[in-house]
Amino acid sequence: MSATQLYWIRNDLRVQDNHALWHARDEGNVVAAYLLTPDTWLEHDEAPAKVDFWLRNLQALKSRLEGLGIALKVLHCRTFADAPRALLDLARKIDADGIFFNEEYGIHEQRRDDNVAEAFTEASLGCRRYADQVLFMPGSLRTQEGTMYKVFSQFRKLAYQKLHDHLPECLAAPGKQSLAGVSSDTVPTEVEGFAKISREQQDLWPAGEAAAHDRLQHFAEDIMGEYKELRDQPARDGTSCLSAYLTSGVLSPRQCLHAAIAANRGEFDSGNTGAVTWISELLWREFYRHILVCYPRVSRSQAFRPETEAVPWRKDSEGLAAWQEGRTGIPIVDAAMRQLLATGWMHNRLRMVSAMFLTKNLLIDWREGERWFMQHLIDGDLASNNGGWQWSASTGTDSVPYFRVFNPVTQSRRFDPDGEFIRTWIPELRHLDAKQIHEPPAGDLFEATEYPRPIVDIGETRKRAIATFKSLGEQS
Ligand SMILES: Cc1cc2nc3c(=O)[nH]c(=O)nc-3n(C[C@H](O)[C@H](O)[C@H](O)COP(=O)(O)OP(=O)(O)OC[C@H]3O[C@@H](n4cnc5c(N)ncnc54)[C@H](O)[C@@H]3O)c2cc1C
Fold first, then answer.
1. 338 and which of 244, 306, 314, 326 could share a cystine (Cβ 3.0–4.6 Å)?
2. Are residues 270 and 345 in the same domain?
3. Ligand 1 center from residue 64 Cα (angstroms)
4. Which CATH number is 447's domain given?
5. Confidence class of residue 476 from pLDDT cuts 50, 70 and 90?
6. Are residues 141 and 115 part of one domain?
7. pLDDT (tens digit, 9 = 90+) per residue, 414-438?
């Protein structure tokens, strides 16, 4: 009889192209386990929408696993610190030879996993870890001098070279096994401490690998060709909306890469510009994972550029609340923030615009924005969120220069020319024409509607931000 192996599910909620699952099955019969750790999730500012997405995908995964004869155990813990004991107890109960899991890259996740590995080794059980949520193991791409990359374009150049040398393949789903006398547990639909998500919001993000692949296929076949032209227009269906699936591992980056390559006649750095641009975005995701691992200070809430720790960020609780609630009086910013609250997602162009408004026009610490995004994003991802915030705040690696402050009104006119996106999210402004909607005229409007006046003067606050950063003296 073959040995039993424990496969620990985390942000890899799929059966296809899953390294830990595939290798565990290759070594014997598998029992899968998922740990609920709500206290740590709260500490990490995980969004209720994301926790709900995890649970719904876990339910879908349970059906797929059962179809393969694999039982799913759901372990109720409180924190990451409970993981070694809970997993070891289960391993003993099912008489497992060892545990298999895919690497996660935050420092708390790494510490948790090291502790689990240690506990299993001490108990004379095996522990196998796999790089799965990336195309390249973080830290494996280095400059000729052996140092870690800090500039995306150079990182991408080597990534292209590596992909030419060897294109990572997708693994198949593991083969079916005969049930090993272990029954599956019930997957909860809610976890204490996280608000319930409306059916309307859930319907925007259908769970399961099949739904994720439908979305990927639709994007690759019908949208990707025009991605370069459409990706900056929030009113258009111009991006993949796959980030939640990638973050929770319902899809792998290899599956995305292969879908794009297939639609681009086998090419990834030439051919259709839409495909090439999209693949480049997947590499930004890789880049930020490399930064997270190679420069652990960013995982500890520190600025990548140490000199920017001296920025005298303003304490402005009213400004922060207005930004969070979408009532700054700057329509494109408010529309974006309302989209986030209603859907758990925000368009990339608007993430940059709203992040820059908070950090430059309001001069509020980027960490406040990073936390708020994490608490509300269904795709909240430590590496990409931190990377995006530090890029916008000019505190990060390869970030926007401090003197290039986006003017939100100009951005609005350029990327939402008809005001369609603003009208969707700010009904108070629906009656305004395409000219007025980006910067509602002062006067009657504010008395006639509940829409607020701008809380800051865009021009003055831009000057203040530039002067503040300039005074640090060390910016590029
Ligand atoms: C302030 C700020 C915060 C962000 N927070 C997150 C976050 O928490 N989680 C997250 O996944 N992305 C984050 N991003 C990156 C980006 O905005 C989202 O990945 C993108 O909007 C998701 O939509 P999509 O799936 O339609 O992307 P597409 O345009 O279809 O791109 C495909 C995939 O590439 C990756 N990607 C695209 N752009 C970026 C980028 N700039 N950085 C890293 N990866 C990228 C994502 O996995 C995305 O799903 C942030 C960006 C900014 C400026």
1. 326
2. no
3. 28
4. 1.10.579.10
5. very low
6. no
7. 999 999 999 999 999 999 999 999 9
Q: Which residues contact residue 352 at a Cβ distance below 8 angstroms, ignoring those fewer than 6 apart?
A: 388, 391, 392, 406
Pocket lined around ligand 1, Cβ cut-off 6 Å: 231, 239-243, 246-247, 281-282, 284-285, 288, 348, 351-352, 355, 373, 377, 379-381, 384-385, 387-389, 392
DSSP letter assigned to residue 428: G
Active site residues: 281, 284, 313, 348, 366, 389
Q: Average pLDDT, whole number, for the chain?
A: 95
- CA-CA distance, 400 to 178, in Å (whole number)? 55
| Interval between CA 94 and ligand 1 midpoint (Å) | 40
Judge if 46 and 120 occupy the same domain: yes
Smallest CA separation from ligand 1 atom 21, residue: 348
Q: Are residues 288 and 268 in the same domain?
A: yes
Distance 336 CA to ligand 1 centre (A): 15
CA of 286 from ligand 1 middle (Å) equals 11
CATH code (residue 77): 3.40.50.620
pLDDT at 180: 64
Containing structural domain, residue 252 = 134-167+208-294
Q: What is the mean pLDDT of residues 185-214?
A: 98
191 belongs to a structural domain: no
Task: Based on the fold, state whether residues 438 and 452 are members of the same structural domain.
Answer: yes
Residue 314 lies in a domain: yes
Q: At what angle do helices 152-165 and 273-294 cross, to 10 degrees?
A: 110
3-state helix, strand, coil in the chain (%, to 5): 50, 5, 40
Q: What angle do CA 101, 380, 345 make, to 5 degrees?
A: 135
Nearest CA to ligand 1 atom 44: 285
Indicate which atom in ligand 1 lies nearest the CA of residue 346: 21
CA of residue 346 to ligand 1 center, whole Å: 9
Measured distance CA(43)–CA(47) in Å, rounded: 11
Residue whose CA is at the smallest distance from ligand 1 atom 20: 348
- Residue 385 Cα: closest atom of ligand 1: 5
Residue nearest to atom 26 of ligand 1 (CA): 241
Q: Could you report the per-residue pLDDT of 303-361, keeping only the tens digit for each?
A: 999 999 999 999 999 999 999 999 999 999 999 999 999 999 999 999 999 999 999 99
Judge whether 192 lies within some domain.
Answer: no
CA nearest ligand 1 atom 23, residue: 241
Phi–psi pair at 67, nearest 5 degrees: -60, -25
